[in-house]
Amino acid sequence: MTTVSSFLMGTEPLTEDQERKVLSSPKIGKIAAAVRAISAATGGLPFVGDLVSQIRKSLERPVTDGVIQAWKKRSELLEFTDTAKHPPEEQITYTIGEYSVESVYEPSLKLCINGVEEWTIAVEAEIALDVDAGDLLIQGGRIWELRLGTATARGTLRVEGQEVAKRESEPIALPGTVRFENGIPIAAALGG
User: Fold this and answer.
1) In 3D, which of 117, 113, 106 has the Cα closest to residue 159?
2) Which of 113, 114, 181 is nearest to 143 (CA)?
3) I want to staple 146 with a disulfide (CB 3.0 to 4.6 A). Which of 37, 64, 87, 178 is the partner?
4) Is the pTM higher than 0.85?
């Protein structure tokens, strides 16, 4: 499964250029200076690798989460919560044509050095999916299945406002069917 982390960052260490961008932030530069002062014997900056590892962990969520969140908020789905029109046992296949979905993930990381000083490092990942078509299986006011066609994904990763990674995919076939064990309630997402 493709996650926000694997799409934007892959599994390889940051390139020198990406590391330079991270370190160019005044806040990260201050942290780097503190790490150097604490561990003068360290030739590199081991915290950069640890920082990248924590960023990856914070972004380990499926890229398709954004699609699901966007679909359940579409106001035209609200009609499927009306039990007078759609009894609970009725299954509806709702087709959505071409559309775009954008999601922003903003985890923050807290860093303590020697238990003395603490920094909060802002991370922002933007993911956009341009989907050519999709079907939802709806029953009882809930989305039970998501059937996708193909999509093009693009995204940007920023650490403390510095663009670290940017990527755009070729059109990719999305997984055939995603099933939701308890269904995703439509009305709750729309304020109902």
Assistant:
1) 106
2) 181
3) 178
4) no
